[in-house]
């Protein structure tokens, strides 16, 4: 539930050091009205998620020849085995379950200007894996199987605005990756369309300004992963002009200047692209799909209601029965991947020559399509490294875990994809540092915020986690 006065969740404690300063005065819906609407939508619909045995899945089953967990239609997704070989110095080869979902879904936000102010049509959507059930989602969030109605349910609302022949103006359209640790080569189409139409607003949808969305990004488990990812891709020019000196503190001022491309970068953009290409060329990432049943050799066990690893780490695969009264199908069953613990995404930022830079890494994950993508300085599940030798722990992990609170510029818990993951959450941090940090190897580079955001129109450059950080970063700026 949301406290309609303070705008904070009543069951969590705010840990944010930064604050949103975006104007919301010209919004169609006030923030107080939003919190009231959101609570009403949460109460208005019936949601229930219950763990079940794999044998109780309807339409899903283990293939007798491979042990892969598949749907009888051959659509949606499957759980298969993946063997990976890399040239890392620590655990260079392993096997794991992986979600295989080759079809490309649509993540679309419909926007419209009211009195000259850009508004986004967002929905309150339940996903079976969400910690709190309902979160703010894009206008359209649908796999190809869903919007083609393979499930036999209702159609996807507002899909017509994102189909060929729509009268809307396309402001952004590109393919972006999802979690490379758990998906094999997964991408979704991110599309933002502006309309002048008088759009009928369904009761589970509302118009919000970017300023309001930036405020909501500072709340735990409020804006879902797909919405954060699309919001990160909205070109800054579309939000209207802003005063780079309008920040209420020096850090906000530094964020604005870096986002706007003012100041001097440590590395030219051409050098950044050449560096990432070099990393991709020399990094070894050999992926081989194998039957899920073969992963017993890698420590994975299949039980009546869970697939897990004998070490108690990484993630489980579980099955759930779902009821959602406002979904296209109101009851169904499905598998979900359930991480063992929360992850940590920490972005270290520093003023270099007066310009704010972020320390990013070129990271390779098991299921990545293009070998490596840019992500946060620290990107891991800390619990997986509890018994790892110090020299092989993720660089800067211990630095982040012991950083003084005064260096934290924001600190928020965000949920990951609730349609495929059960209670997957990451702690997203931005730390401003003054220390002379020495990168352990050539996988790290300092980049300005403008250099980061300029890569968003291109596919497979920024991980979905880094895109969430970019979206949160904009919550510190005074935008409409």
TrEMBL record:
The molecular function terms of the Gene Ontology recorded here are: lyase activity
Q: Where is the dTDP-4-dehydro-6-deoxy-alpha-D-glucopyranose 2,3-dehydratase domain?
A: 32-234, 271-472
Coiled-coil-forming residues are none
Which InterPro entries does this chain map to? EvaA-like, EvaA-like_sf
Know the name of this protein?
NDP-hexose 2,3-dehydratase
Recorded source organism is Salinispora arenicola
